Amino acid sequence: MKRLAITGLCLIAATTVFAQQQQQMKKKSPTQSKAEAAAVKAMLEAQTPDDQIRTADELITKFSNTLYKSFALFTEADAWEAKNDHTKSIVFCEQALQADPKNFDAETLMANIIASTTKDTDLDKAEKLTNAAKYAKDALDVIPTVGKPDLFQLTDDQWAKMKNQASARAWQAMGLVASVQKKADESIADYEKGLALDPNPVLMLRVGRALEAQKKYDEAMEWMDKCIASPDASAQIKDIATKDKARVMAEKPKG
Fold first, then answer.
1. Is residue 3 part of a domain?
2. In CA terms, which of 8, 45, 100, 150 is 20 to 30 Å from 236?
């Protein structure tokens, strides 16, 4: 699931975290049968978006009352986003929330998709941004209230880290909303709130780009350097940050 999605790099932060979650979530087996346990295992071990969609759908179809229903629906949502099908991703996020209104991963994914695909020319721009902000704010309200799930074997530290990462993704969505609204200072402040929770290199890059838009070239390059130096930055993100820095250097007035 490590890919660039939506306008270049929008959801890489969200989806790579989800990939990490799948690796960390070891089945605790609150299932009704060996067949259901095998279906859950297949879903958790699926590597490609197509396999994730197939195995999640098989779990829900064969075991309609599975305790993993909301997680399976979110798995499908994330996989559809990996295939750049934003419409289907949102549909499955909505279904995941119907199955579990506290599924904050679904809320943050929808918030990021809507915010990052909204254009200045959209006639319903204001409505879309309002909805994106609402999903992000709802997630930020829900995350502190959700206890460690019984479905997966997680340490307290792992669960705390996952919640911080989810909150950071919500703040990313808020920053995207502000960016579309041309509120650069607010956008930067939102990204930095996310960075305070999770030092995600994508958010560092976003701060840099927001500062570039303000023509604060030296500060922008500092954040791009931080992104490049981040131990969590993939080769893909480092390459983007390097190219961004070169562009900023070319934009910066000489002398």
1. no
2. 45
